[in-house]
Design goal:
By secondary structure, the chain is of the alpha+beta class. It folds into four domains: 166 residues, Immunoglobulin-like (Sandwich); 102 residues, Neutral Protease Domain 2 (Neutral Protease, domain 2); 204 residues, Neutral Protease Domain 2 (Neutral Protease, domain 2, Orthogonal Bundle), CATH 1.10.390.10; 79 residues, PDZ domain (Pdz3 Domain, Roll), CATH 2.30.42. Helices cover 30% and strands 26% of the residues. It is built from 17 helices and 27 strands. The strands form six sheets. A seven-stranded mixed sheet has the order 4-7-2-1-10-13-12. Strands 21, 22, 23, 24, 25 and 26 form a six-stranded antiparallel sheet that branches. A five-stranded mixed sheet has the order 15-16-17-19-18, covered by helices on one side. Strand 15 and strand 16 form a beta hairpin. Helix 3 packs parallel to helix 4, helix 4 packs across helix 5 and helix 5 packs across helix 9. The longest helix is centred in the middle third of the chain and has 19 residues. The termini are far apart. 42% of the residues are buried.
Length: 580
C-alpha cells in the first residue's frame, strides 16, 4: 500500500442490508488516532447523523492486536494507537434506504454515497486514498472516481473528492455516453428500465450544450449521470463535482410525458450544479466542514438560481415546450402565493434555517423555500437585469462572472460578492431589490407583474377548482382515500374564523360520510351552508360554514399578452431564445 489511507468495501451481507467497511491508516506516529464520520452531506443542508447506522466498530493494530476505542462525540471515535505503525478499523453500516443521497445494498447492487459511511482522519483529510471494492468480478461500477489497473480499485486525491464520488456497483447497469465540447458524459441506469437511448441522448445533448455554451466551458473533463430507476413513485437528485445521482420512478412512466419531463428537469438542474455550488461555492462552505452545520444565507443562489435556470435551459434548448416551461413557472407562483410564511421569514433567513427544519413543513406559516422562493426571485432578477441592460445581460451573465471570478479559482464568494456581481452586470444599485425580497418579506406582486410585462407576459389569476379551497380557505389530504385531514388554512379565512385547526379530520359533510370525495360533495352543496363533522385532537364536533364573496388559494398562470408590442415580443425571444 502506497497511500496512508486505504478503504475496502465488502459485499457480503446484502440480505441483511449491511455494508462492511474497512479503513487502514498507515505510517502512523501519533498515540491517539481520531476518526470522524460526516454528520451531513453536501446538497442537503441538514444534519444526517449517519453514525446511527454504524454497528460493530472495532480497531486492530499492525499485528492484529485489538485496540481500545472510545467515542468522543456522536460521530467521532478515538483509537489508542500508541506503538502502532498502522491501524485497521472495521465496522458495518446499515444500508436499507434508497434515495439520491443514501447508501443501499441488496442482492442486485451495492450503492454507496461515501459521505454517509466512510470515516476520515481530520488531520489527513487532504491526503490521497485508494478504494477497493470486494464485489463479484463481473460487476461494473458507475462512479466519478478515477479507475486503476484493477477493475474494482479506485483512487481519490483527498477525502473531499471521495465524499463527492458516489458509486453504483451492479451486474445490471445499463450504460451509454455522449460528448459535448470535448467532455465525455456517461449515462448509467440501474433498475428496471427500458430506455429510448436515441431520444434520451438527443435531449441530453441539447441542454448540456446550451449550458456549456452559456457558461464558457465545463468545470470537469468527464461527467457521470447515475440513475436509480425504481418501480414505485419517487423523485430525487443530488449534485456532485463530476456526477449526480438521480432516483426516479415508476419505471413504466419514465418515457411518458410527465415523468420524462421530470427526468429532463432534474438532470438539467443537477448538471448546472456542477458550476453553481460545486465550483461557485459560498465562502462558508469552502471547504466543506463535514462534522457540523455549515450555515449560509446564500441558498437562494445555490438552489434558487439552479432551479430557475435548469428549466430555462430546457426551454431555450428546445427540450421543453412553451406549455411545460409555463407550467413550471405556474408551480413557482402557486408555492409562493399559497405559502403565507413568505410574510414571516425572508428567503435568506430561511436558507440559514435549513439546518433547523428546511426539509420539513414545520410550524404554520413560518418560512419560505430556498428552492421555490429562490427560483422565483432569480426569474425576477433575470428579467430586471435584461430590462436594465437592454437585453445584454441577465442572471446567467452574473453566474458566468461568478464562475470566472470564483469558481475557476476555488475561492468562496460572499453575499456582498453576489450583489456586487449583479450590480456590475446591471449597471445600477440593486440594494432595494435585495433588501425587499432576499432579506425582507415585501409582497412581490406588483414588481412581478411589471417584470413579466417586459417580456410580454401577464399573470392569469383564476379561482381554485377545489370549492373548499376557493370559498372556505382550507386544503386537505385524504387518509386512506376516506376522511380528509386539513393540511393548510389561509389566514383570516372562513376556515380560520370557524376555528378549524391543522390536523383536524373531516368525517362527514351534512351528515354524509366522506369517502375520499370531499371535492364532489362540496360542489354538490355549492352556495349552501354546510355542516362538517370534525374529529379533532380530543373530541368530535360540528361546525358550519357559509360561503361569502371572499376567495382564497387562487391559481396563477403565466400567459402571453394578447396585444403584446413588438418590443415585448422581442424581449421574450431574447429571454427564452424561442418565438413569441
Amino acid at each position: 500500500m502506497t497511500e496512508k489511507l486505504n478503504y475496502r468495501v465488502l459485499y457480503q451481507n446484502a440480505h441483511q442490508h449491511f455494508v462492511d467497511i474497512e479503513l487502514t491508516v498507515s505510517k502512523l506516529k501519533q498515540d491517539k488516532l481520531q476518526l470522524q464520520l460526516p454528520a451531513w452531506r453536501p446538497g442537503r443542508y441538514e444534519l444526517g447523523n449517519f453514525a446511527k447506522n454504524v454497528q460493530k466498530f472495532k480497531a486492530f493494530g499492525a499485528d492484529d492486536t485489538i485496540l481500545d476505542v472510545r467515542k468522543l462525540s456522536k460521530d467521532l471515535w478515538e483509537v489508542d494507537s500508541a506503538g502502532q505503525s498502522s491501524v485497521k478499523v472495521e465496522y458495518n453500516y446499515y444500508a436499507n434506504e434508497l434515495n439520491a443521497g443514501s447508501t443501499f445494498v441488496d442482492d442486485k447492487q451495492l450503492y454507496v454515497n461515501p459521505v454517509n459511511c466512510f470515516l476520515y482522519v481530520p488531520e489527513l483529510i487532504n491526503e490521497p486514498a485508494t478504494v477497493e471494492l470486494a464485489i463479484p468480478k463481473e460487476w461494473d461500477v458507475a462512479t466519478g472516481m478515477q479507475s486503476t489497473a484493477n477493475k474494482h480499485t479506485f483512487q481519490v486525491r483527498d477525502f473531499h473528492e471521495l465524499a463527492d464520488c458516489p458509486f453504483i456497483a451492479s451486474g445490471g447497469l445499463q450504460h451509454n455516453s455522449y460528448e459535448i465540447g470535448g467532455v465525455l458524459f456517461h449515462l448509467w441506469f440501474q433498475g428496471e428500465f427500458k430506455g429510448d437511448w436515441e431520444r434520451i441522448i438527443k435531449d441530453f445533448k441539447k441542454f448540456t450544450k446550451e449550458q456549456i455554451d452559456v457558461m464558457g466551458g465545463f468545470p470537469v473533463t468527464e461527467y457521470h449521470f447515475l440513475f436509480q430507476i425504481r418501480t414505485y413513485k419517487t423523485y430525487h437528485g443530488v449534485e456532485h463535482c463530476n456526477s449526480t445521482v438521480i432516483t426516479l420512478g415508476p419505471s413504466y412512466d419514465i418515457l411518458k410525458p410527465v415523468l420524462y419531463d421530470e427526468l429532463l428537469g432534474v438532470s438539467s438542474h443537477e448538471l448546472f450544479h456542477t458550476w453553481n455550488v460545486k465550483a461557485i461555492r459560498p465562502i462558508e462552505m469552502q471547504p466543506y466542514d463535514y462534522s457540523k452545520e455549515n450555515y449560509t444565507r446564500l441558498g437562494y443562489v445555490a438552489e434558487g438560481v439552479t432551479t430557475y435556470v435548469g428549466d430555462l435551459f430546457l426551454y431555450q434548448a428546445g427540450c421543453f415546450s412553451e406549455f411545460e416551461f409555463f407550467k413550471n413557472i405556474h408551480q413557482l407562483f402557486q408555492r409562493h402565493f399559497h405559502n403565507y410564511g413568505r410574510f414571516n421569514l425572508s428567503v435568506a433567513d430561511s436558507s440559514f434555517d435549513t439546518w433547523l427544519d428546511g426539509y420539513e413543513k414545520g410550524i404554520p406559516d413560518r418560512k419560505t423555500s430556498i428552492y421555490n422562493e429562490g427560483a422565483l426571485l432569480a426569474m425576477m432578477l433575470d428579467l430586471s437585469l435584461l430590462k436594465d441592460t437592454g437585453n445584454k445581460g441577465g442572471i446567467l451573465t452574473v453566474m458566468r462572472l461568478l464562475y470566472d471570478r470564483f469558481g475557476k479559482t476555488g475561492t468562496g464568494y460572499t453575499e456582498q460578492d453576489y450583489r456586487e456581481a449583479v450590480e456590475e452586470i446591471g449597471g445600477r444599485s440593486y440594494a432595494q431589490f435585495f433588501k425587499n425580497y432576499y432579506y425582507g418579506t415585501k409582497n412581490i406582486n406588483d414588481e412581478l407583474e411589471e417584470l413579466m410585462s417586459y417580456v410580454g407576459l401577464e399573470i392569469k389569476n383564476i379561482r381554485s377548482r377545489l370549492y373548499f379551497e376557493n370559498r372556505f380557505g382550507f386544503k386537505v389530504e385524504y387518509i386512506k382515500e376516506r376522511s380528509a385531514r386539513i393540511t393548510d388554512i389561509a389566514p383570516d379565512s372562513l376556515a380560520e374564523r370557524a376555528r378549524l385547526k391543522l390536523g383536524d379530520e373531516i368525517l362527514s359533510i351534512n351528515g354524509i360520510r366522506i369517502l375520499g370525495n370531499l371535492k364532489e360533495w362540496c360542489k354538490y352543496f355549492e352556495e349552501e351552508t354546510i355542516t362538517l363533522t370534525i374529529n379533532s385532537e380530543d373530541d368530535t364536533h360540528k361546525i358550519q360554514l357559509t360561503p361569502t364573496d371572499n376567495r382564497y388559494y387562487r391559481t396563477r398562470w403565466p400567459q402571453k399578452i394578447t396585444d403584446a408590442t413588438e418590443m415585448q415580443k422581442n424581449n421574450y425571444r431574447i429571454w427564452t431564445k424561442r418565438g413569441f
